[in-house]
């Protein structure tokens, strides 16, 4: 369950004054919606506070929080239509004669709001109808200043570039690269061991970091909230992915692939000396990932080495210097709700804030735990209160967590990509769980009756199909 919500780190006290409009639903007049304000408001009032006027512009924290959470209550296209309608109505933009002095004060604020919206949530503008709303409202203020229309064209051009870039993401792992069954160990022409491609742990850690940041960059903040909307009613403890959360799904699949790739690379070699060498290599890679701040790859590597087909290789592990591995395991220990990891994450986040180089700014969180934290924050607090008001305080905390993630994912990777290494990491065959067990048993014979029976069953079900 989430802790008591607080907005003290989100906004500056007294930093937002609402627009001069009448409150609704019995709310007190002129109550600000951030620090020191009521923790809830009606949806209509929240929409009203998003709309700029000649003398008012909503605080950036409010814009992000409301645009992020509003999709739980109203489609982005409809929200934009209502915002544009309110702008036209309040500024009397549909009148034959405009108050040019007032419009010249209002125009830049409207364009600023549209710029922030299209920059942070570009996928909200994939439908042609939403672009039409933008053009219509800006077309009404354009006669007052030619610069408005020019600014609008620049905004649309930047939006198009963002949407194009989002459509050209890294090669998808959704529904692809499924684990293969163990038949015979893949020939060298199909499966080249990773150490033959990259034998330097620091280089591999850098390439993993490059891949992580590339994948993170394509995850929109709205995907976290959209996962709540598509929650499977038959599985109340987890979200259900959809086409609006496909980047989230792809990133989770990438983590799983890396786990199985690590386990496959360890179980592949025929000699225990080689297997021990691979284990020690991955321990060094994991340590470098920790030093970089790449906690997601770190956890994937540790998880891969802790899979049962790998952990049972006692003769192999006897040849491994495990002290460094135990230290890394301690850092990612789930005890106390991952207390050690969260301490390390806060340290990396602090380093990022005071960094003088892109290298020091890198923070890649353990993604599955981030999703879990956000999900249980959503589950632990109601979206709406009994009086029908939106629980805005909840969404301020949600925005705080997701906003921090956005800052981290925007860091430019300082490491140059090595296509041969990344291609291998994306495409090298990986064994299924049964395949890993069979490879493990062939590397080190079953030790008890349970393992012997499983080995016999696997050989019959997998090898018998060839």
Describe this structure as you would to a colleague.
With 466 residues, the chain is an all-alpha fold. The chain has two domains: 40-168; 194-431, Son of Sevenless (SoS) protein, Chain S, domain 2. Helices cover 59% and strands 0% of the residues. It is elongated and about 90 Å long. The two termini are 50 Å apart. Mean pLDDT is 85; it is low at 1-32, 172-176 and 232-242.
Ranges where pLDDT stays below 50 over 5 or more residues in a row are 1-32, 172-176, 232-242
Q: Quick one: CATH superfamily of the largest domain?
A: Ras guanine-nucleotide exchange factors catalytic domain
What is the H/E string? HHHHHHHHHHHHHHHHHHHHHH
Counted up, domains total 2
Could you say which overall geometry the principal axes of the C-alpha atoms support? elongated
Tally of DSSP β-strands: 0
CA-based gyration radius: 27 Å
By helix and strand content, what is the structural category? mainly alpha
Helix content: 55-70%
Secondary structure tally, helices: 22
Q: What is the typical, i.e. mean, pLDDT?
A: 85
CATH topology of the largest domain: Son of Sevenless (SoS) protein, Chain S, domain 2
Pfam family, one: RasGEF
Organism: Otolemur garnettii (Small-eared galago)
GO cellular component, one term: plasma membrane
GO molecular function: guanyl-nucleotide exchange factor activity
């Amino acid at each position: 369950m989430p802790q008591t919500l607080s907005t003290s780190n989100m906004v500056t006290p007294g930093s937002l004054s609402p627009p001069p409009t009448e409150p609704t639903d019995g709310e007190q007049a002129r109550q600000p919606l951030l620090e020191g304000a009521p923790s809830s408001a009606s949806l209509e009032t929240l929409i009203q506070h998003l709309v700029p006027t000649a003398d008012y512009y909503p605080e950036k924290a409010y814009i992000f929080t409301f645009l992020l959470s509003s999709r739980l209550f109203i489609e982005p296209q409809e929200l934009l239509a209502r915002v544009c309608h309110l702008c036209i109505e309040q500024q009397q933009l549909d009148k034959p004669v405009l108050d040019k002095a007032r419009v010249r004060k209002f125009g830049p604020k409207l364009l600023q709001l549209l710029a922030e919206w299209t920059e942070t949530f570009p996928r909200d503008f994939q439908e042609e109808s939403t672009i039409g709303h933008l053009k219509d409202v800006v077309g009404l203020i354009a006669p007052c200043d030619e610069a408005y229309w020019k600014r609008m064209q620049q905004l649309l051009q930047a939006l198009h570039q963002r949407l194009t870039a989002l459509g050209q993401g890294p090669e998808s792992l959704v529904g692809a690269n499924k684990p293969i069954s163990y038949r015979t160990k893949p020939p060298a022409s199909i499966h080249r061991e990773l150490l033959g491609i990259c034998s330097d742990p620091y280089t591999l850690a850098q390439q993993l970091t490059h891949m992580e940041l590339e994948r993170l960059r394509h995850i929109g903040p709205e995907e976290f909230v959209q996962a709540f909307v598509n929650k499977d009613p038959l599985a109340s403890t987890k979200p259900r992915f959809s086409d609006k959360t496909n980047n989230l799904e792809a990133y989770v699949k990438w983590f799983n692939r890396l786990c199985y790739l690590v386990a496959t690379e360890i179980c592949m070699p025929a000699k225990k000396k080689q297997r021990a060498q691979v284990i020690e290599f991955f321990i060094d890679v994991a340590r470098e990932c920790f030093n970089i701040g790449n906690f997601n790859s770190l956890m994937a590597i540790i998880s891969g080495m802790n899979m049962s087909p790998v952990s049972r290789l006692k003769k192999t592990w006897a040849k491994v210097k495990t002290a460094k591995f135990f230290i890394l395991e301690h850092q990612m220990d789930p005890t106390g709700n991952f207390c050690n990891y969260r301490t390390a994450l806060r340290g990396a986040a602090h380093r990022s804030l005071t960094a003088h180089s892109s290298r020091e700014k890198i923070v890649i969180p353990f993604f599955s735990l981030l999703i879990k934290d956000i999900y249980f924050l959503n589950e632990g607090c109601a979206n709406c209160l009994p009086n029908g008001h939106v629980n805005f305080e909840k969404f301020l905390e949600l925005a705080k967590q997701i906003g921090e993630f956005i800052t981290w994912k925007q860091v430019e990777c300082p490491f140059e990509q090595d296509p041969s290494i990344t291609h291998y990491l994306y495409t090298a065959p990986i064994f299924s769980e049964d395949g890993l067990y069979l490879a493990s048993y062939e590397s080190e014979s079953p030790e008890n009756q349970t393992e012997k029976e499983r080995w016999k069953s696997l050989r019959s079900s997998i090898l018998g199909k060839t």
